[in-house]
Automatic annotation (TrEMBL), chain A:
Coiled coil: none annotated. This is ABC transporter permease. Keywords: Membrane, Transmembrane, Transmembrane helix. It holds the Pfam family ABC2_membrane_2. The keyword RNA-binding does not apply. The keyword Transmembrane helix applies. The chain crosses the membrane at residues 20-42, 54-74, 101-126, 138-160, 166-189, 242-266. It comes from the Bacteria.
Length: 273, 441
């Protein structure tokens, strides 16, 4: 336990001194503020044009930030030889990875909190801003999205040998999960027999954290009826108190699995060294 | 005449005295009110003492039935008959509280006579509230209809006001809640529906096979659909407010299906799943509506030759979806998501606003993909899809600014809470950044 704490504290120390963290903070804060200004005459409440825009822009930015920060941190250890040094200490791979994950989450969530805090406070001062439950839901959305993709980032950082590889893979994962997802699904599933489409879309959605988090948030914001009659049961179900619990469960399983795969790959690498 | 009304008065006094004595006399009291009605002369006014009367009652001659003075006159019906059946013309029933909670086929009030006036009734029903069959020119005003039976599915509930083959009716300032259709009109022409409030029902105002219906200044909230105009002609839907019809996957603010030569103007449609839904309808005019904060502003499906102009679209998740609707006169609307260019300064954009049919077409074929509604990847894909652009529904001259200077900001409940939460988040994260940097050096 203290090993995890040690790695996490070290990661936070490095993370908060990383210029990347500050440029991402500036980028995220700027983007939250500009959305606020675009929406200056309105008031963000429920699932509407402005909250949907906000969801989509967070979907563009946050996964990319999480993927890059996370994978660079891991590949940095490899490139700079820190991992070889750490390997000589009595430090388990599991403690190393979870410690890294926790430390990076702290950095990333601080960035998100800063951006949200700025826009919440500025919105209030400008006399527009957010309805409080919508604000909370958007914050939960951003936090979940960051944590999910940080899990994926640990995997990317494990697979990649250096920062360049990590960047390539990170951008690839981001493009696949956020931009190309509907196109790929429509193209691939369009050829399937009709009754298979819905189960396939449902199953694949659980594999894509961006889509899963987005749908959860849309339903929680009251926009579930946009999903159409096919997903009526989902809508009822996600809106029930169980919806949140199961979403949290799926999130933990998902991140746990990502870390477990990273762990086994890392262990294999360690054996070879 | 004088004798008769004195007699009535005596009976009513007796009735009032007998009232607290309870269940045992119910049969007798019921008999009494019916006897009063039977013995009244056509055209007479019967003033009821406050108290509880038992139904069912039948009115088969022109009468006026009303409370003697302000106070509760309750008509209770435990039978499977209508609480009140009116077969006579020119009958007025006013100010009664009708409690008819049994779930049954027969309605609470059944009208089969012409020129009947129902005024200020308060109806609690487990069936249809007011049913009119083959009777013309009546009025229902200031009446409240509430569904009373627990645990009945919406599809099994009765309608608030149900007209069949009943022409030129006027329904003003009624409040209808938790029923199937608030006001249902079938084969009933030239009805006037105005100032009603309809909540938590299936359809607020529902026209089937009607002509010349006027739907004005009504308010619909939390229904499946606010106003449903189906297979109808020359209907006018003006000045209504339909909000928060968003819970159901088939919710709309105003729906036109197979509607023709209809005017939809000056309505406010706010926070619905689809604001205006137009399918297989032609020759309608949709003007000057405020369509705000819906998931989809307007949906046009296989509709032609409609005029859609001077509407304002604000804060909708998707402003418009259209499929197979090319020949509509779509121009001069304000779309808040659209940034136009106005070189000649006439307030209208020189570039047009085209409605991308890709998503609508795809989800019609494969509804499972509805899941991608407004997802970033879908928005990206729609941007790539540009084929046959000349066949898209297009606003030829969208407005640069909303006609009346924009939308008033709604009530801001909890704005300060957000502000405080914002400051807390900002403070904590700044402190963390500061401390972590300091500790490092």
């Amino acid at each position: 336990m203290s090993e995890i704490g040690y790695v996490a504290a070290r990661e936070m120390k490095i993370g908060f001194r990383n210029p990347w963290a500050y440029s991402f903070t500036a980028l995220f804060a700027l983007f939250m503020l500009s959305l606020l200004l675009i929406n200056a005459q309105g008031y963000v409440k429920g699932y509407s044009g402005s909250s949907s825009t906000m969801l989509n822009l967070a979907l563009y930015l946050l996964p990319l930030m999480a993927l890059m920060l996370g994978s660079f941190s891991l590949t940095g250890e490899k490139e700079e030889g820190n991992w070889e040094l750490l390997s000589t200490y009595p430090l388990g791979t599991w403690a190393f990875l979870t410690g890294k994950y926790i430390g990076l989450s702290a950095v990333l969530l601080a960035i998100v909190a800063f951006g949200f805090g700025l826009s919440g406070a500025a919105g209030w001062l400008l006399g527009g801003g957010f309805d409080v439950s919508t604000y909370r839901q958007l914050l939960v959305f951003s936090v979940s999205l960051s944590l999910f993709f940080l899990g994926a980032a640990m995997l990317v950082g494990t697979i990649a040998r250096n920062r360049w590889q990590a960047l390539t893979i990170a951008v690839g994962v981001w493009f696949f999960a956020v931009i190309a997802w509907p196109s790929i699904l429509i193209a691939a599933l369009g050829m399937m027999p009709y009754p298979w489409i819905k189960p396939a879309v449902t199953a694949l959605t659980f594999l894509n954290p961006a889509e899963l988090t987005r749908l959860f948030t849309v339903v929680k914001l009251g926009g579930g009826s946009t999903l159409g009659p096919e997903y009526y049961n989902w809508m009822v179900w996600i809106r029930s108190p169980w919806g949140t619990a199961v979403f949290l469960g799926v999130m933990m399983v998902w991140i746990g699995l990502a870390l477990a795969v990273a762990y086994s790959l890392w262990e294999r690498g360690r054996g070879r060294d | 005449m004088a004798f008769c009304s004195r007699w009535c008065f005596c009976v009513l006094i007796v009735l009032a005295v007998c009232l607290p004595s309870g269940q045992a006399r119910a049969e007798e009291e019921a008999l009494d009110l019916q006897t009063v009605l039977d013995q009244a002369k056509p055209g007479e006014t019967i003033d009821l003492q406050p108290g509880t009367y038992e139904g069912p009652i039948t009115i088969n001659k022109p009468l006026t039935l009303r409370p003697e003075r302000e106070g509760e006159v309750i008509l209770r019906n435990g039978s499977l008959q209508p609480a009140i059946s009116i077969s006579a013309d020119q009958t007025t029933v006013a100010g009664l509280h009708i409690i008819d909670e049994a779930v049954k086929e027969a309605p609470t009030v059944l009208v089969t006579g012409d020129r009947v006036v129902l005024e200020g009734l308060q109806i609690r029903t487990g069936a249809d509230g007011i049913v009119v069959r083959d009777a013309d020119e009546g009025v229902v005003t200031r009446t409240t209809i509430d569904w009373a039976a627990e645990g009945v599915r919406m599809a099994d509930k009765g309608n608030g006001i149900d007209l069949f083959n009943a022409h030129r009716w006027r329904m003003l300032d009624n409040t209808i809640r938790d029923v199937h259709d608030g006001i249902y009109m079938e084969s009933s022409d030239n009805a006037s529906v105005s100032g009603n409030v309809i909540e938590r029902s299936r359809y607020g105002v529902h026209c089937m096979y009607t002509k010349g219906t006027m739907i004005e200044r009504n308010v619909g909230m939390l229904n499946v659909t606010g106003a449903m105009v189906m297979t109808a002609r020359q209907v006018s839907v003006t000045g209504n407010t339909f909000a928060k019809q968003s819970e159901n996957v088939n919710s709309q603010g105003i729906l036109l299906y197979d509607a023709h030569e209809t005017i939809v103007a000056d309505n406010t449609v706010d926070g619905n799943r689809v604001g205006l839904y137009v399918e297989q309808s032609t020759g309608n005019r949709l003007e000057n509506n405020r369509i705000s904060y819906n998931f989809i502003g307007i949906q046009l499906l296989e509709s032609h030759e409609n005029t859609i102009t001077a509407n304002q679209f604000f804060g909708n998740v998707a402003d418009a979806q259209a499929r197979g609707s090319e020949s509509n006169a779509l121009s001069g609307n304000y779309w808040d998501s659209f940034r136009g260019i106005d070189a000649d300064g006439d307030g209208k954009s020189d570039i047009s606003y085209a409605i991308n049919p890709f998503f609508q077409g795809m989800t019609q074929k494969r509804p499972a993909f509805q899941l991608f509604f407004q997802s970033p990847g879908m928005v990206f894909l729609e941007g790539l899809y540009q084929t046959e652009r000349d066949r898209w529904s297009t606003d030829s001259a969208p407005l640069m600014a909303p006609p009346d200077g924009g939308l008033q900001i709604g009530a801001m409940d909890g704005g300060s809470e957000t502000g405080v939460a914002g400051f807390v988040l900002l403070g904590c994260s700044s402190l963390l950044f500061y401390r972590m940097r300091r500790r490092g050096t």
